[in-house]
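Discussion board: Methods & Data

I've been asked by a reviewer to show the raw model output for two of the constructs in my manuscript, not just the figures. I'm not sure how much to include, so I'm pasting the format here to get opinions. Each protein appears as its amino acid sequence followed by a line of discrete structure tokens. Is this the kind of thing reviewers expect to see in a supplement, or should I convert it first? Here is construct A:
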Amino acid sequence: MAEYTVVKISDVPDQAENLGHDPAAYEVRFMRNPLGMEHAGVTFARYSPGFSIEGHTHNRQEEVYVLVSGRAQALLGENEVVDLEPWTAIRVPPETPRALRAVGDEDAIFLKIGAPNTGPGDGRGVPDDMIDLNLIGWNGWRITFPIFDRDGKIAFFKQAKDPEDKNDGPK
């Protein structure tokens, strides 16, 4: 008999709350381990309208983001915005800063594939002290913080909503 693994995505635990996000706004299900993947990882993600995730890069892992439904934008490199429509795939090499956000009135559903399989710890995020140094970019409801690499170039952005906003959406 052939070797394979079948996993129902809804059976994989949602990790949004464990990552500090509101599960009503963001859903993320890491399927690498349930599928027994050795050389790559695959993740299901749902972004509610307007939701965005913090920018990041990787040490070794390249990623492919497939927008299954909804509309989204990818912020890449030094502030390049790429519009994504359903069934659009975008590959991002490890060192390229990237962030995704849902645009429009419906959830954006992604399948994210990363290789090689590096497990946790390959991604590089934003330390809070760097955020404190770059308080710019207020648009009336969210502030954007540019994050610079060691060469002084913008690596990616971190966003936060108005502290006076009392809704339960993402911060």
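Construct B, same format:
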Amino acid sequence: MLRTALTAAAAFATLAALPNVAHARLQCVTYARQVSDVQLSGNAREWWGNAAGTYARGQAPQAGAVLAFRASSAMPYGHVAVVSKVVDARHVMINHANWSRPGMVERGVMAVDVSPAGDWSQVRVWYGPTRSLGLRPSPAFGFIYAHGAPASTAPVTVTASITLPSDPANG
């Protein structure tokens, strides 16, 4: 009996001495790399800067793009989420991890652009515990595109000109 107690105590002491990495839960950056074609490293707050020169970035939502959140007091490491569907210019469905609960993966949850300029700089995200959009907007950089920037929906204007001779007889 003493031997069993000592073995259990030694096992507990070993478990308690392990670094936190051994107890890590799925983080948003690991999940985003697994389910998207955006392959960046670093904390989520660094993804926007790390994407420069490698991936196109912008303010228009696109399925497959990564929505990159800025660091804030509520999320000091930032956050990243993968757009699964664009509902309209200010509403997207996202897949992400570690938002509503540590390590929890959420798929097909709503994110809404609440920025005054419509540039996705302020975003409210579905929060599981309240079963509603979060009460506070979260600061965001914008979208990192896996396969280039989204196609523009603006009409293309082409201007052409020709020069006519002033005297048609000498043409």
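Answer (T.O., handling editor elsewhere):
This is acceptable in a supplement if you add a one-line summary per construct. For B, something like: The longest strand covers residues 79-88.
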